[in-house]
C-alpha cells in the first residue's frame, strides 16, 4: 500500500532528539521508554522461541529500553541476564527503570555472551557519535544472535558509517521513524530486518522539525497513469544524443525510454545514423543538424552523455544548455573536476567513481556530498549505488533501498537515464522523475528475480515496473 510522505520521513539523530523533547511535553519519558521496551519485546516474541537472553544496557535511554525488555522477557518466563555496560545517571529515568530489574546482573559477561541464545544490544542509540571502546567491542564480537534496540551500537545514525565496530543484528527495532543510517551502506548491512514501531509519539510532532530526507518509495512521488485521451506528444518526447563510436549506450537508453512509456524517442546521431536506424523501427533518427532539432519546441527533454566521447560532450552539451532544454546528463559528461560543465543540466546521474572524479571525495557522508553537489550545480543529483542517494538543490534528499545486485550490469545506467527522461517528458518535476526513475529501475530488477538480467532484460520489465510504481 502506498505510504503517506510523512511515514517515509527519515530523521537525523538530532531531529529525533527534538522530537523526543517535544513528545516528552505530553508523555513522560519513562512511559515512552516503557512503550519502546514493549514494542521490542513483542517483536522478539513474534520471531524467537524462548531462550536464554543477555541484555547489554548502556547508560542512556537506549539502555533504559533494554531494562524494560529484560523485565518483560523474564516475566514471559525466559531466562534473562543483564549487564550494565555503564551506570545510568542517578535519579534519571533510566536509573528508575534499571531499579525495577530484580533479576540477575552479570558484571563480567564475556564468558556468558557466547552461550546465551540471544543478545539484546541496548548499549547506545542512533545518536552515538564516537567509536565504542575496546572492552565493549571485544564483548560484542562474541555475540552470535543480536537484536538491536534503535540501531546496532556503533552504526552512525546519520551516515550509516561504522565507528570502529558494530554488531551484525538479525533484527533492529527503532521508534517513530527510521534514520538515514538504517538504509545507507554499510550500516544497512548491520541492521538486519528493520522494524519501525509507534511508541505513542504523535505524527504532529514532525512539524516541529524540518524533514529533508525520505525513504524513496511510492508516496514520495506520483506517477501518471494511462489516460484515454493520451497521444504520443502528451506521453512525452525524449531526445537522446547518440555517440559516433559507442552506439550501444544511446540505444539502451532509447529502448528504456520507449518501454517506460515515452510517446516518441529521437536519437540525434553524431555519426553511425544507419546503425541507430537499424536497431529499432521505433526510434526516429535525426537527419538534420542539432540547431534544427532544437527548433522543434516539443523536444524539451534531452539525454546527453551515454556513449559520448569527451569531445562530443564538449561540443553538444553547451548547445543544449544554451537552448534551455531539460538535460539528463550521464557517463561522458563526468570529466575530471569539471563541475562547471554540468551547470544548466537538470538531472545528473553519476556513480560513486564518476562523482568523485567531478566533485572530489565524499568523506563517508553520501547525503551531504550529494546535497552539496546539487547546490553547486543546480541539478538534481542521483548518486548511484546499492544505496542510491537523490539530492535536490533545495536540500531535499531521498535514499533508495529498492534495488538489487541484478542492476549491476553493463548498460544499467543507460537504462536509468532513459527511464528518468521519460518521466520528465511526461510532466513530472526533476525531483520526482529522478526519485521515481530510480525506484522503477530497481523494480525492473526485482521483476527479473530468478535470472542474471542484461540491461535489455531490464528494459523488458519497465512497463510492469512503472505500473507497479503507480499502484
Ligand atoms: N526515539 C524516542 O522517541 C525514544 C527513544 N528512546 C530510546 O532512547 C535512546 C536515545 O537515548 P539517549 O539520547 O539517552 O542516547 P543513548 O545512546 O542511550 O545514550 C547516550 C548516553 O551515553 C553516554 N555515552 C557514553 N559513551 C558514549 C559514547 N561513546 N558515545 C555517545 N554517548 C556516550 C552519553 O553521555 P554524554 O556523551 O552525553 O556525556 C549519553 O549520556 C534511543 O536510542 C531509544 O532507544 C526511548 O527510551 C524513549 C523514546
Ligand atoms: K543499540
TrEMBL record:
Residue positions binding K(+): 62, 121, 153
Organism encoding this protein: Commensalibacter communis
Subunit description: Homotetramer.
Record-linked PANTHER family: ATP-DEPENDENT (S)-NAD(P)H-HYDRATE DEHYDRATASE, ATP-DEPENDENT (S)-NAD(P)H-HYDRATE DEHYDRATASE FAMILY MEMBER
The enzyme's E.C. designation: 4.2.1.136, 5.1.99.6
Entry keyword annotation includes Lipoprotein: no
One BP term from GO: nicotinamide nucleotide metabolic process
Function: Catalyzes the dehydration of the S-form of NAD(P)HX at the expense of ADP, which is converted to AMP. Together with NAD(P)HX epimerase, which catalyzes the epimerization of the S- and R-forms, the enzyme allows the repair of both epimers of NAD(P)HX, a damaged form of NAD(P)H that is a result of enzymatic or heat-dependent hydration. Bifunctional enzyme that catalyzes the epimerization of the S- and R-forms of NAD(P)HX and the dehydration of the S-form of NAD(P)HX at the expense of ADP, which is converted to AMP. This allows the repair of both epimers of NAD(P)HX, a damaged form of NAD(P)H that is a result of enzymatic or heat-dependent hydration.
Superkingdom as given in the UniProt entry: Bacteria
UniProt xrefs under HAMAP family: NADHX_dehydratase (MF_01965), NADHX_epimerase (MF_01966)
Domain YjeF N-terminal per the UniProt entry, residue ranges: 16-207
SUPFAM superfamilies referenced in this protein's UniProt entry, alphabetically: Ribokinase-like, YjeF N-terminal domain-like
Keyword set, alphabetical order: ATP-binding, Isomerase, Lyase, Metal-binding, Multifunctional enzyme, NAD, NADP, Nucleotide-binding, Potassium
Catalytic activity annotation: (6R)-NADPHX = (6S)-NADPHX; (6R)-NADHX = (6S)-NADHX; (6S)-NADPHX + ADP = AMP + phosphate + NADPH + H(+); (6S)-NADHX + ADP = AMP + phosphate + NADH + H(+)
Signal peptide: none
Record's protein name: Bifunctional NAD(P)H-hydrate repair enzyme
Cofactor binding summary note: Binds 1 potassium ion per subunit.
Family in the record: In the C-terminal section; belongs to the NnrD/CARKD family.
Every YjeF C-terminal domain range: 215-469
